[in-house]
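Problem statement: downstream parser choked on a complex file, so we are re-checking the raw output for the S-adenosyl-L-homocysteine run. The parser issue turned out to be on our end (a line-ending mismatch), but while we're here, posting the original submission so the record is complete.
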Amino acid sequence: MEKIDIKSLSFPELEQLLAGMGEKPYRAGQVYGWLHQKLVTGFGQMGNLPRKLRERLEESCFLAVLETAEVKVSQIDHTYKYLFRLADGNVIESVKMEYRHGSSACISSQVGCRMGCKFCASTLDGLERNLTASEMLEQVYRIQEQGGGRVSHIVIMGSGEPFDNYENVVRFLRLVSDERGLNISLRNITVSTCGIVPGIRRFAGEGLPVTLALSLHAPNDKVRQTLMPVAKRYPLEEVLAACREYFEKTGRRLTFEYSLVKGVNDNPGEAAALAKLLKGLHGHVNLIPVNPVREREFIRSDKKAIHEFKGILERAGIAVTIRREMGQDIQGACGQLRRSFLKKQEDRSPGLGKENEGG
Ligand code: SAH
């Protein structure tokens, strides 16, 4: 019998599981509290449960727990980069940023990614697998346990495309915002997508008031297609119509992410076109100087070009910010830490190529 991923169960599902074991209804609240508030890493720690029940849970369920493989701490601004090892040996990246108002966790939704965006390191080796809801929760739980302070904000902006793992992401959002768990406000959570139209539409109907961030990166399909293969599938017109629908249904303003790449999408004409494109949409633009990825030839726009670009948007009445760069000294773009870790492992065991693994 396959074991149940108990940390991915909703409260009603947990109630059902325990009722099926012949347990009293109040046990569900106790177990849920151990899992999602006390953040235990083993059934043995569930102190107020009878030993018999702990043993039965151990037999039928497993507890997803992430192991910390590496932590890098920025000496500049206390940004933490974590490499977590999953039960199957895969590793993923998460980041904690400390702000005045609390801590924000940036988490991954997949191991690798299959979207193929040209400037992104997470996608270089393709998609390995989806993360479960419990593995997403665990990133937040381990960050909170290790860092001390409460995680108040979450951004799903690590590796992976959230709408390519739709069900697990929605399950995660409901669990992490549950008042019997960490109770993180959905208004403090951002989901970032490369623009999968059916995903945006469906998400608009979930009744989850999270902030949606759209990775735009170009003011027209032609340039966008050179950076993001997904743009060939979903033209901008459809993507922005879905964004408008998201605002209308949820009342939540959107964020448009725009990574500035020198000579590719950063000229004044492109800024003006972007302003025109976004006129009347309820959102703001977040300009991100591109993080150079070793395997690619993209160069970040220079400071002057970035400020000029910003000025054009502002004068056209578009709200715009330049992303504050955190953890510069431990940086490396999204997915780079994982790649260098995997590379190190490979170097340590020469001859043990991918084809020999897991056989
Ligand atoms: N799949 C989601 C989440 C990806 S990461 C999405 O596409 O939105 C979050 C943001 O970082 C995205 O806007 C992504 O395009 C951007 N990004 C990825 N690599 C980058 C890099 N090297 N430099 C700047 N931005 C990058």
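For whoever reads this later: Residues 351-359 have pLDDT under 50 and may be disordered.
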